[in-house]
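Protein Record: Sequence and Backbone Structure Tokens
======================================================
Tokens: labelled as protein backbone structure tokens, with as many entries as the chain has residues.
Question of interest: how does this chain fold, as expressed in backbone structure tokens?

___
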Amino acid sequence: MDVPVELSRIVITETSPEQVIFLKEKDGERTFPIVIGINEALAIDRRLKGIELPRPMTHDLLAQVIEAMGGHLAKIVINDLRQHTFIATLFIERDGETIEVDSRPSDAIALGSALDTPIFVAEHVLDEVLGEPLDLEGQRENLQRRRDELTEAIAQVQHRLESKGFKESTGGEKIRTLQRYLKEMQSELDAIEEILRHIP
């Protein structure tokens, strides 16, 4: 049985190559994260916001190819989980025929996000992802360790920026760089806190 879900949140952290999207059961309370790449996260975010670029990016191009060939992306199904890696399938309808295409969930969602394409997750995948096999305790410990590192680094940078002697002896460009670095670290810390709240 496939369970309808929706994209409930995107957490984008510029200082990390790994981003997180959250899928939530439409008619229930179950929710789970999927770690994706920065390019896919930005593509999903951009397509959801309807931001158009001068030339089509990869997911825009694929959507145009499907349309030009008379196809329609009917649904996306995340139908398997292998060694902690999610597997998805695109269901494309064309001339009364359904074509199934293997896909990463991140690419599938980036493709379908601008088209209001329904997303489903197989029941057995939900059961597995919300159970013990994903080593949630290990994930929690890694995130807590990174959170502690960021908290200490943020305190150090803030102390330096607030130091009168540092401001007087440092050029404006370096100060702006540290301020930008501080903002990025704070953004990553906020993202980690958000993820920790969703780990049971």
